[in-house]
Amino acid sequence: MSVQAAVLGFALVALLLTVTPGLDTALVLRAAVARGRRDAFATALGVVGGVLAWGAAAAVGVSALLTASTVAYAALRLVGAGYLVWLGGRILWRLVRSRAAAPAGSAPAAPGGAWRSARTGLLTNLLNPKVGAFYVAVLPQFLPAGTPALAMGVLLALVHAAMSLVWFTVLVLGAVAARRWLQRPAVSRTVEGVTGAALLGSGLRLALPGG
Predict the structure, then answer these.
(1) Model confidence over 167-206: pLDDT tens digits?
(2) How far from the centroid of its chain's Cα atoms is residue 131's Cα?
(3) Number of structural domains in the chain
């Protein structure tokens, strides 16, 4: 397999993974609706930073070690599950509290800040061992013989990151264009509720044995 064929093959797999709705998409969409373009792109950059970190880790064998070590994987899984449960629970609690305290028809307020948004995107990705498991399972299939594993792994992670940025850009611009409709209280609350429930549910599933 040539380097070009490996990059194209991995790009197809990464594309399918990127456009499949998941936690990353929910976080970026929520940031776009609740806080605007800047925080949405900050969230996306945090997610992409996590992608690059896992890709590099897989290339040097860190992710493989986590997958092979039951204790290490379980520890990261529980930490990641706790973070997702806390994040999702906080969103849902703020939604319930704002509904009780705010005037009828008002949308829930969400704390913002580019750094906070980027940190949320980064930690959500870094604390998800399934991202590392994905790289461990997929990366070896796209490492041509004779190529440096670290350099090739970083290159493939960059391809994944670039595709993620393109997808998130389309998502953010679309959400910002429709922000006036999306910020209607009923719609905004729905976005908050779905995102919080998705994070909480993912955390609970991750906490279960075999999650």
Answers:
(1) 999 988 888 877 666 666 666 677 677 777 777 777 777 6
(2) 9
(3) 1
Structural domain harbouring 67: 3-207
Please, what's the largest Cα pairwise distance for the chain? 65
- 55 token code pair: 């890709």
pLDDT in tens, 105-164: 444 545 567 888 898 889 888 887 777 777 777 777 777 777 777 788 888 889 988 988
Buried b (16+ CB within 10 A) or exposed e, 86-124: ebbeebbebbeebeeeeeeeebbebeeebebbbebbbbb
Closest CA to 28 of 20, 17, 39: 39
Closest listed residue to residue 209, CA positions, set 49, 23, 78: 78
Give the span between the Cα atoms of 130 and 152, in whole angstroms. Answer: 21
Q: Is the pTM of this model over 0.85?
A: no
